[in-house]
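To whoever is on call:

I kicked off a structure prediction for a single chain this morning and the downstream step that reads the tokens threw a length-mismatch warning. I double-checked the sequence; it's 70 residues and nothing unusual in it as far as I can see. Pasting both halves so you can look.
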Amino acid sequence: MKKEISLAELARELGINKSKLNYYQFMGLLTPVFVVGKRGLFDRKSSLKIIKKIETEKKKGKKLKEILKV
């Protein structure tokens, strides 16, 4: 399995919308490990962990601004 992964691949793997991941990146919750052209590549393991934590916290009723403070 690849170590670096695109947002589209992360979205596909998790079954969520890519635009949601773009927003997480915009909010500073996800940061690419490096950028190739205009495309950011993310560390697969840490990004999956972060996204799952965000989704868990959202299910508990927390807003992204609250999650950002954690």
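Update from on-call: the warning came from a stale cache, not from the record. Cleared it. Sanity check on the structure: Strands lie at 4-5, 34-36, 39-43.
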